[in-house]
Each structure stands twice: as C-alpha cells, then as structure tokens.
C-alpha cells in the first residue's frame, strides 16, 4: 500500500502511477497523518506534549543543510530499496529464491533510522513529519521546514 508520499512520488516518476492518482494518494497520506497525530494528541496528551508532538527538529550541533542532506539521502535509500525489492524482473531472474520484499525494505528503514534519528528524529515519511508539524503547530516545529 501507499503510506509514504516519497515512494508514491517515485512511482509516479517511474510511470507506475498516474499524476491524478499520485496527487490523490499524497493528499490522503498527509490528511491521514494529520488525523493520526490529532488522535494521539487527543488521547495521549501527556506523552504527546512530553515528546514535542513527534515533530522533527534539527538536533543541536547540526546545520539545517546537514539535516536536509541526511533526510534526502535516507529517503533515497528507502525509495531505491522499495524499487529494487519490488522489481518484477527480479522475481523472474531469481526464481529459485523467493522474493521477500518486506525484509530488505524493513532493513533499509531500520538502517536509515539508525543514521538519522540523532540528526533530525528521522523524517523519511514526509506525511508523518508534515502531520506532526501541523498538529504540534509550535514555531520551533516549522523553523527547519
């Protein structure tokens, strides 16, 4: 399923999804993230506030450019892994080995999180980052966007 606008955009660029469908998916993903963060804020107020609303911020000691670069590279790694793990030619070429796309994708997400959590809190899903920033609505949440 489509849960990450970066992956949806990549699929659009690869001509696997039409422009209208890609835009509809990305709008739905962002609205879903806003609703999800709203529910968390409504039902878990203390945890929500103690964690800064889940909004991504640049950690002290890192520049905005470094943080942006880390997020771009991390998102690229995720999208590249999704494309390579779900390539239909791969299953034909490696028919003796079952293709388990979730395994490399999950590993890529894990590795990107290890690398970028100390810098930005990891925002490789733009919808999740956008939803948290909209609901948190603190000036600091928008400083680096």
TrEMBL record:
Can you name a GO cellular component term? membrane
The Gene Ontology terms for molecular function here are: channel activity
Subcellular location, principal: membrane
**Full protein name:** Putative plasma membrane intrinsic protein PIP family member 3 aquaporin
The protein's matches in Gene3D superfamilies, at most eight in alphabetical order, are given as: Glycerol uptake facilitator protein
Residues that span the membrane, as ranges: 22-44, 64-85, 97-119
Q: Which family does it belong to?
A: Belongs to the MIP/aquaporin (TC 1.A.8) family.
